[in-house]
Specification:
By secondary structure, the chain is mainly α. The protein has one domain. About 70% of the residues lie in helices and about 0% in strands. It contains 21 helices and no strands. The longest helix is centred in the last third of the chain and has 31 residues.
Amino acid sequence: MELTPEAQRLAFIVAAVVVLWFTEALPLAVTALLGAVACVIAGVAPAKEVFRPFADPLIFLFIGSFLLAEAIRLHRLDRRLAYAVLATRAVGERPVGILAAVVVVSVLISAFISNTVTAAMMLAIVTGILAAIEEAGAVSGIRPASSFATGLLLSIAFAASIGGLATPIGTPTNLIGLGFIRNELGVDISFPGWCAISLPLVTVFSAILVVIMARLFPAGVSRLDGVQAFVRRERARLGPWSVGQWSTAVAFGITVMLWIVPGLAVIGLGADHEASRWLRDRLPEGVAALVGAILLFVLPGDRTADGQPRRALSWRDARIDWDIVLLYGGGLALGELCFSTGLAAAAGGRITAWIPHGAAATTALVAVAALVAVVTSEFTSNVASATMVVPIVIAMSRTLGAEPVAAALAATMAASLGFMMPVSSPCNALVYGSGRIPLRAMMASGLILDVIGWVMISATMLAVSSAVGR
């Protein structure tokens, strides 16, 4: 397939952007903006077309979610959840119970809050737990094997990445894939629709993570004294629920309700019912997130030190990860231009020669898409991996006659793996920076989880493909 001049110029720009993303010679968001600017200057497309994805509705889902997440962090609702789980009788002071609790809390929090923020918060909590264990061990003489600390810290990073798959807002990678699927395939996957696919996968994957980490990094003792005393002290320091915490919980609860009600209406009333259509058209996920975020600026918060009233969130405290927003907009712009200029179709056509056609096309493409995304995510950011892989996978599915949604979802979810290297994700880098994780331990356990994740995601998406086919 002969490339148009616009596609040729775009290919050069995309190659340069990929190199900059891999090397991180520039901040990722700056590289995304540079790619968009270069497309306009090179005449690939008019400025209005290039910059249109920066106002994509999913951008506002990002913004609303960031504000909700910041309020949860600011009012320490995430820590309240973490210590509540750790204090349960089922956890106690058993090593496996503590490991499972850390995984569960990390997964739950990262489903709604940035994986990196989750990992940073859990790292502080687990560091305190390990210090309490070591302090108690100095008195009792019973100390766990040093490998237990390694496994516990690694579990934070791995669980945060797995938890990001649970909801569309769990990680920017999910929204990037959903954006391509909606814009290029005309398929709009709702919040409940995503969760119906992801939650069984995340639940099983989390359980497997606990089993693997317990086997690879055993504590060597049956009880870890000092954990419950530490948790009780930290819960006492949190005190009773504050006004700001209640307001944040209300805003978040309303947002989640608005996310799931349209899907429930479709299930209960049918997709063609007037109420279902109204909810779908008037309350998309981005609008629901903004409703919750705006409520934070209306509902009361904690009083200042001098007794002055304030809101649950002030604009001064509001923090939006604009680097992620710009990275998403730039990546989506390049992806859409790859389709409009024919570059994605040409690239996909070259690769499809290696993939069987016919009945086996979907199976092969899903497996290849997931594998390429996993490998790519080991060496660049998850967002960059999804931005590069998903458009090509969609183009390949058209050439092969494979089921495109399953293949695109496989690439989207697999881009969130990449467990082997400290540079694979900020979560990995954070826990590796603790100085208590040998690189060999991260690589060995990460490789096992990469393979398991690849198999699980491929199998899940083939099941989705089968369901879509029926």
